[in-house]
Structures are given as C-alpha cells and as structure tokens.
Amino acid sequence: MKTFTYERVHTPAEAAKAAVRTPGAKFLAGGTNLLDLMKLEIETPAHLIDVGKIGLDKIEPTPTGGLRIGALVSNTDLAANGTVRRDYGLLARAVLAGASGQLRNKATTAGNLLQRTRCPYFYDTNQLCNKRVPGSGCAAIAGFSRQLGIIGTSDSCIATYPGDMAVAMRALDAVVETVNPAGKTRTIPMAQFHRLPGKTPQVETALEKGELITAVVLPPPVGGVHIYHKVRDRSSYAFALVSVGAILQKDGSGRVAIGGIAPRPWRVEAAEKLLPSGAKAFTAQLLKGARPTNENEFKLALVEATLEAVLNEGGH
Length: 316
Hints:
Layout: E1 5-8, H1 12-21, E2 25-28, H2 34-39, E3 47-50, E4 59-61, E5 67-70, H3 75-80, H4 82-87, H5 89-96, H6 101-106, H7 109-113, H8 120-123, H9 165-171, E6 175-179, E7 185-189, H10 190-193, E8 212-218, E9 225-231, E10 242-248, E11 254-259, H11 269-272, H12 279-286, H13 298-313
Parallel strand pairs: 1-3, 2-3
Antiparallel strand pairs: 4-5, 5-8, 6-7, 6-8, 9-10, 10-11
C-alpha cells in the first residue's frame, strides 16, 4: 500500500472543500471496496478524507411522499428499515442479495453506488486495462470474459457494474443528491449516474471533481409486487451473472432493471411496454444491440429465463 495522509471532516461542505485542497484525495466511508483496491495499489490516493462522522446517516420521509436515504446509511440499516421493507421491497431484497452480513454492516449507500468493477483484468495489475490505466488496452476482450458485459460495452472496455443496490434504485427511479466544493447542490437521476465506457472507461460516474454524494432520494412508492432474482455461480458471496429487479403491477405493466450484463444497471423503458407479451419479446427489445463474446453469450438466454421466473413469481 502506498503512503497517504488522512484527515477527518465534520460536515459535507468541509469534505467537498478538502477534496479539492489536496490533489489525489479520496473520500473514505465504509472502505469495503476502496481499502481492497489500495492494498492492490489499483487505487493510490495521496490523501484520505474520512467522511464517517459528517451525519448523513438518516432515512427520512420527503415532503412529496418519498424517502431520503442519507449517503452514510449502512446497507444493514437500509435493508432493515420498516418503510423500505414495506414500500420499497425491491431495494431491501437487492441489498440483502449482496455481500456478507459483516460487509453490509460497514458498507454505505453512497459507497455501494461507487463500487468499482470486479473484472479480473482490472484487479490484475499485470494485465492491460483501460479502466485502470487509460490507453493501455483491454485484455478482457480477447481473454476470459464469462462474467463480463454483453451490452453497453465498447472496444475499450467490457467490464460490468457489479452492485445489486443500484439495480433496484434504477427500477425505482431514484435520484442522487450531491454537493460540490463551492457548496452548490444538484440532483442526478440514477439513469444518468453511471456512465457507459465509450473511449473513457476510467470515467465511471457523472460526479465531478470533489463532488460528494449526500443522499439518494426515492420517489413515492408505486405499489406492485417487488422481486429481485440474482443468478450466480454459488449461493452466497458472489457477484451476479445476471440479476433481475422488477416491480410488477396487476394490469401486466411493470419496471425491470437488469444487473450483471452492462457497465451500469441496464433498463430500457421502451422494452417495458412489451412485458405483457412475455419474457421473450421483452428481452429481445431489452438486449437489442448486444455484443456478447463466445464465453458470455449464454447471458442472452439467462436474462430471458430469469425474467420468465420473475414474471411467473409475480403472477404474470
């Protein structure tokens, strides 16, 4: 691990200012992903800004009937919250499908959204990776790609976004709240938060330099049946080959976001109009333009089969 300096801040504004005061600084909250990356020297921040004591650990109702989740709410507290379990069951199920109990105790809402890909070529510093070293190439494209992306990828990167929580938040139309070093706040819809790789796969989110996530806001609940299915190589502590997060209504309509297949939670609203026609029609539209490799072509059929199971469970 490279040498770094450390400071603890006490307000969101102080954190954002500290991030621009010291070049190469990173925010530190739960640290469940960042510290692993630092040990491997994939992340080498010159300075860590500990934001663990700046508040932002509350789950509160919004004036419009939604729910505001502080950036530092732990995954455990989020999944156990009564309102989340009652009105946003998809989110609770997705969170509980990820990691271990110990990790969920430390992981935070904002940190979970910002976790980086588990592509093996990103983690192996002896391999070429445009995400880790921009312009170096992508060994994954001609390499072992079973876990990697089939849609939304580029000639520079075929890594997937690994999280479960973000899949649910995409289906729920969540919005990310932030503050920048000048104290200016803004909101970023989940649909725009994670970026596709294009020619700059190292730029993974819409966050700007020094910008700090303060909360994630859920709109008022939409009812329906909430289902999260995660298909993986073993029953626990593994990332998804394919995951399906769905909110299904009695009239046959619904929302569906997919994990494990793209650089961000994959949702195509236009495809949702085909849900009443069944999984095959929906999946064909959802995966239009997919570019699988020989090793992960099976994900095309796996998405359809998993969605079929979800629709059956939802009574469709």
